[in-house]
Design goal:
By secondary structure, the protein is of the alpha+beta class. The chain contains 13 helices and 18 strands. It has a 5-stranded mixed beta sheet, with helices on both faces. A hairpin with a 5-residue loop joins strand 2 and strand 3. The structure holds adenosine-5'-triphosphate and magnesium ion. Adenosine-5'-triphosphate (ATP) binds next to helix 6 and helix 7.
């Protein structure tokens, strides 16, 4: 357990590993007391390809956050990308056991365990179960049934499953970095915590995270995550195109893209005033933003084309009422919103506002969202600590998930 119940989050991204440390305030908000960042050289397209390098990145990001906070981190929640994730809707039903028919915490625990019973192939494992709503004696839409009277308690839950192999390395990197994994949080849920309003989640919205190696598309409606998909495209492809097009090295292309990149060439300046040095030659050449954009725009168009195909496959040939909200490193490039509006033929597209939690840097927004998600879910996540009677009947759901996480790492 971390000192004074601090919540720690780790996001292992393609570009960087980020660590965040928050102290819960009584009003439900968090005081962010530590942040850490380290380039992640061992991750490609969202997949860990070099274990040792990733462990080093985790250690150095954790150490940075520890230095800032002034104490050691023991355990953390880890963001889980939508790659190889499947969401299964399932119901659990139990009879309320107490004599007075009052629903207690242990009934909740039992009904969640009942929802856990799904047929799974051997290569998949349950990583989380998210209650969508409870139903008491046929009455639907109940958010918290504890204290209500009833005979039959049902839960409509979302069972999150992952391929064991793809999880394995992520968990190993964190635990070998000296940090115990408290639990996993779907990146999409962490992102939604800081980037979507309750109304947007209710009405129907796509939250699209365009990162370095992946683009994650999450669809929310009726307050819930309804669909999730990850595409292997992102900012790294734009950099590769720019490097090839201008014949410059990858690192220079990455820097040019971030500093002068424009997604829509008609918005870029045409005056050649950016100095570049082509590979194999010592001569400097001047290029314009417009020329850079001539290599960036086609790839951005392609990314939006792929996004549009994917959301059409999800049943949305046009955008849902609350439209599409973009986030991730690539969404901070100039002209992204304009290009998205053209590509999706809708004005209902915006770039997420990162200033909502006081940390302006979008780099940390997944990890900050994760801290807020854990803060809000904490009663459920710590249900074992609170309800002693359930413990007598064997380990509870979160404990079992934790035990399984420990097993998989060992
Ligand atoms: N201002 C900017 N303009 C253009 N691209 C940018 C800018 N800032 C960051 N990027 C790009 O965003 C990408 C990194 O985004 P992000 O930090 O969201 O990715 P990640 O979470 O590490 O990766 P992933 O989610 O794919 O694992 C890189 O390709 C980077 O070049
Ligand atoms: Mg990311």
């Amino acid at each position: 357990m971390n000192r004074r119940n601090f919540i720690v989050g780790i996001d292992v991204g393609t570009a960087e590993v980020r660590v965040g440390l928050g102290e819960p305030r009584p009003d439900g908000t968090l005081n962010i007391v530590g942040l850490g960042l380290s380039p992640s050289d061992g991750v490609r397209k969202g997949v860990i390809v070099d274990l040792e390098k990733t462990v080093e990145s985790v250690v150095s990001a954790v150490e940075e956050a520890e230095r800032m906070a002034g104490f050691k981190i023991d355990s953390a929640y880890v963001a889980l990308k939508g790659l190889n994730i499947e969401l299964i809707n399932n119901r659990g039903v139990v009879a309320v056991t107490s004599e007075d028919r009052e629903i207690r915490e242990e009934d909740l625990e039992r009904v969640m365990q009942a929802a856990r019973v799904v047929a799974l192939p051997t290569d998949r494992e349950i990583v989380d179960i998210i209650p969508r709503e409870y139903i008491v004696d046929g009455f639907e839409g109940i958010k918290d049934p504890v204290g209500m009277l009833g005979v039959r308690l049902e839960v409509d839950a979302q069972v999150v499953t992952s391929l064991i192999t793809s999880l394995h390395n992520l968990l190993r990197c964190v635990s070998r970095g000296g940090v115990t994994v408290n639990g996993l949080v779907l990146q999409a849920l962490a992102n939604a915590e800081v980037s979507l309003s309750a109304d947007e989640k209710e009405l129907g919205a796509f939250l699209v995270d365009i990162g370095g190696g992946t683009t994650e598309i999450a669809f929310f409606q009726n307050g819930k995550l309804e669909n999730l998909s990850v595409l292997p495209v992102g900012g790294d492809h734009i950099t590769t195109d720019l490097a090839a097009g201008l014949r410059i090295n990858y690192q220079s292309a990455e820097e040019l893209k971030k500093e002068y990149g424009t997604a829509m060439s008609s918005m870029a300046e045409s005056e050649p005033k950016i100095e570049i040095r082509t590979v194999g030659s010592n001569e400097l050449r001047l290029v314009s933003e417009r020329e850079l954009s001539s290599f960036i725009e086609p790839r951005v168009q392609e990314i939006f084309h792929i996004i549009r195909e994917e959301i059409t496959k999800m049943g949305w040939p046009y955008l849902p009422p609350a439209g599409m909200i973009m986030r991730g490193g690539v969404s901070s490039m100039r002209g992204m919103q304009e290009m998205a509006r053209v590509a999706l033929e809708s004005d209902q597209v915006r770039v997420a506002d990162f200033d909502v939690v006081g940390i302006k840097n979008p780099i940390y927004s997944t990890v900050i969202g994760l801290l807020y998600y854990v803060r809000r879910q904490q009663p459920r996540m710590h249900i074992q600590e609170r309800s002693k009677p359930a413990r007598k009947k064997g380990p509870g759901l979160w404990q079992r998930i934790k035990d399984w996480l420990t097993d998989i790492v060992d």
